[in-house]
Design goal:
This protein starts with a helix and ends with a strand. It has 396 residues and is mostly beta strands. The structure holds beta-D-glucopyranose. The site of beta-D-glucopyranose (BGC) has 9 residues, from strand 26. Beta-D-glucopyranose binds next to strand 26.
Length: 396
């Protein structure tokens, strides 16, 4: 077995020489084609441009039936290629073809990005902790959204391949300085993407701080199981293991209530077409121009350590399925309501309203301002941990 450190050194040397790299999982150097034929997991690296003078890399992780591309810019999951029921492969996540696509547009929809330091909204960008009040940038007036103007989605992360056994991964690290985007404490974050043997993408998040702060990390991938750029996800069937949700006000800030979904268009406790009720006049749907809410997962483990089923999405046309499990208490189902046709995606086609949906596992939005929500406070000496698995499959 090739020790990872020496393999890593070899990779860096080759990278300096400007070559594309291939690393077999615990098997020495291996070609991508052999990985596809034999299902042997591999990770490859290539230069992908630069941002403000900092080089950005793109890693490709494959295990035969699943191939994903991850950028060190924003830790962005750029493409996810999986087969349909006939074995035909398509890229099922929304994104851009080039780094410039993300940087120039500022990726306003957060395609595929890691979100931090705080996923979703904080009311008026303000919260108090241990008697001090902190003001964050108001980038979604009147609130702060997804970590502010330059959240974790706009940072270049350090990356290192993780190989061994029958999986392959990419470990990303980022140090967010005390006061960055208004948040207290230097936060050291590690996010590891792992391609599991059975067509799964596992994301492990970990963070520590040197001062009390708030943390809520997630990934903002949008899914269209028919393939990105192929139209809306109205016909996709969604199941959410959630009998309650957190209703919001007109600015999409939770009111603090935790309401039952029963008898409302928020009820996805049985698989339901996404488009069946997303034009409903139900006030909550009006506020979000469709679905843009946090569902409270029906968990057995309320210490938030164990992976439990959260959601299942299926596309009757292609037969592709996506199951999401998480350690988190909540999931934001966002129906891509603000996509307006101005962004052109990976395959060159424009993204319009409802052309993809996000399932963001998370603690609840605006938790720092709601004592009745599970806490998002992280203190020195504690370790923030969160895991989510996106498992792909097919049905007949
Ligand atoms: C939010 C939406 C927002 C979107 C940005 C989602 O997580 O809930 O309101 O528009 O992210 O793309």
């Amino acid at each position: 077995m090739t020790p990872i450190h020496s393999a890593d050194r070899a990779i860096r040397a080759l990278a300096r020489a400007g070559m594309v790299l291939l690393l077999g999982a615990g098997l020495g150097l291996a070609g991508a084609s052999s990985s596809q034929a034999g299902g042997r997991p591999t990770i490859t690296k290539e230069a992908f441009g630069s941002v403000s003078g900092r080089a950005v890399d793109r890693y490709t992780l494959t295990n035969g039936r699943l191939r994903v591309r991850i950028l060190t810019y924003g830790g962005i999951l750029q493409t996810v290629e999986v087969p349909d029921r006939h074995g035909r492969t398509a890229n099922v996540t929304l994104g851009f073809a080039t780094l410039d696509g993300y940087v120039t547009s500022k990726n306003p929809a957060y395609f595929g990005a890691l979100i931090g330091r705080y996923g979703n909204r904080i009311a008026n960008g303000r919260f108090s902790l241990d008697g001090r009040t902190y003001q964050l940038p108001i980038n979604d007036p009147p609130n702060s959204l997804h970590g502010g103007n330059a959240g974790f989605d706009k940072r270049v992360w350090n990356a290192a391949p993780v190989t061994g056994g029958d999986s392959v991964g990419l470990r990303l690290t980022y140090v967010s300085r005390d006061g960055e985007e208004g948040y207290p404490g230097t936060l050291r974050t590690t996010v590891t993407y792992t391609i599991t043997r059975h067509q799964g993408i596992r994301i492990d998040y970990q963070a520590t701080t040197d001062r009390a702060t708030v943390v809520n990390l997630t990934n903002h991938a949008y899914w269209n199981l028919g393939g990105e750029g192929t139209g809306t996800i109205d016909d996709h069937r969604l199941l959410l293991h959630a009998s309650r949700y957190t209703p919001v006000d007109a600015t999409l800030i939770p009111t603090g209530a935790i309401d039952p979904v029963a008898g409302t268009p928020m009820d996805f406790t049985r698989p339901t077409a996404v488009g069946a009720r997303n034009r409903s006049a139900f006030p909550q749907i009006r506020y979000g121009r469709g679905y843009d809410h946090n569902w409270v997962l029906d968990r057995r483990d309320t210490t938030y350590r164990r992976l439990e089923s959260a959601a299942r999405l299926s596309d009757p046309a292609s037969g592709r399925t996506l199951s999401v499990s998480t350690t988190e208490p909540g999931i934001q189902f966002y129906g891509g309501n603000f996509l307006d046709g101005t962004l052109y995606g990976t395959g060159g086609r424009s993204y319009r309203q409802g052309d993809g949906l996000a399932l963001e596992t998370q603690h609840f939005p605006d938790s720092p301002n709601h004592a009745n929500f599970p806490s998002t406070v992280l203190r020195p000496g504690q370790v923030y941990r969160s895991t989510t698995v996106y498992q792909f499959g097919t049905t007949r």
